[in-house]
Amino acid sequence: MKSVNIGICGLGTVGSGTFNVLARNAGLINARAGCDINVTVVGARRDNASCDTSQVTVERDIFALTNRPDVDIIVELIGGTTTAKKLVLQAIANGKHVVTANKALIAEYGNEIFAAAEKQGVSVAYEAGVAGGIPIIKALREGLSANKIEWLAGIINGTGNFILTEMRDKGRDFADVLAEAQALGYAEADPAFDVEGTDAAHKLVILASIAFGMPLRFDAVFTEGITEIQPEDVVYAEELGYRIKHLGIAKQREEGVELRVHPTLIPERQLIAQVNGVMNAVMVKGDAVGPTLYYGPGAGAEPTASAVVADIVDVARSIGSAAENCVPALGFASEKIVDPGVLDINDVESAYYLRASVLDQPGVLSSVAQIMSQRGISIEAIIQKEPPAGASDVPLIMLTNTTREQNLRTAVEEIEALASVNGSIVKIRLESLDT
Question: How far is CA 389 from the centre of its chain?
């Protein structure tokens, strides 16, 4: 069998996991790849005690790996975007194939990276960048290649899903669960990347670019975090037959593509509503196959390494083939790709959950309903609770039918201006994910 040599850049959580999986399952991996895959060199600033690197060359300068003639594939696992982008572009310029788990790098600079790779005739694989060990990119590229993808919706950040699961199961508030997530290592000391939706947005644009054949448009994603979700909203959602999940949603419409990350009510009957803890899941609707669901761990050393090694195998198989036939295929930078445009959030259509604090007096509900009617918004369901002892305000909860976001925002502003309504109205979008 032919030999394919790889250089692994980074020996952190994913790097060490990749190194160990390649070593432990070498015979099986080589048989499936149809070639001998050898770790020739590792680039890392420091050693990792969980890896036995005594049989390979270790370089402290990761850029040295891109200049070695005995390296066919550079595996970028250092994270970040500045150094990683420089490393990947240098590797491509030197004719190396690239495998990466870096979703931020691909989401923000993928168009440039793919253009460089296409010019050099090398492939860039990034399965591990989205949903960890779930092979969702390969499913979209290959398994669903016969389909026109109509929409996809995913729980693609485990930290946010863990927090919302704990809030629902145990009635805890956001800050309390976030502190536990940080203690368990699910969330960073600065958790904004996860809880504000940036991480999910990176992953969403990658999925959308594959699903709809469009350029990567991270700049156009509407992003809203989960920091404002209150325990009472979780409870009311359950009463209405829904669960709150932090979803990345991409939909193809005639006017353009919707790209949005935000808390979402989804019917509890949907399988994706049962995805709890730090697990990830992506639901995809194709015109031929219908709805499909992909579930599994979205992070972790060996689950992510599983995806990294799968990409290494694919690239190893493709070496010697024309670049356009590589798996995963290139093409995002091709002039044939048409950008359908990304819809502004005000033009998106959705149903909504609304919670208002209103005075406990006659006529309030009719005033609210009149404003909704004037804006062409119909109300699907209403819950009005009795006021606590001594309180003058009551919570008013409404579910609307589908309407344009701009109409809803205008109606909310007008309702908030009523003397009988106190404070801001909580607004959460609702998706039925019907097939």
Answer: 44
Largest CA-CA distance found in the chain, in angstroms, rounded: 82
Cβ-based neighbour number of residue 380 at 10 Å: 14
User: Per CATH, the architecture of 142-297 is what?
Assistant: 2-Layer Sandwich (3.30)
Domain ranges of the chain: 3-133+301-325, 142-297, 345-430
- Give residue-wise pLDDT tens across range 117-127: 999 999 999 99
CATH top class, domain 345-430: alpha beta
Answer yes or no: is pLDDT of 269 > 70.
Answer: yes
Q: Residue written as tokens 């201006």?
A: 417
Say how far apart CA 277 and CA 234 lie, in whole Å: 15
CATH superfamily of 3-133+301-325: NAD(P)-binding Rossmann-like Domain (3.40.50.720)
Q: Where are the beta strands (DSSP E) in 77-197?
A: 97-100, 124-125, 149-155
Q: Which two tokens stand for residue 207?
A: 């999925």
CA distance 248 to 282: 9
Q: Are 372 and 418 in contact (CB under 8 A)?
A: no
Strand order in the sheet with 36-43: 57-59, 36-43, 3-9, 73-76, 97-100, 124-125
**Would you name the residues annotated as active-site residues?**
203
Q: Which residue has the tokens 């992070």?
A: 299
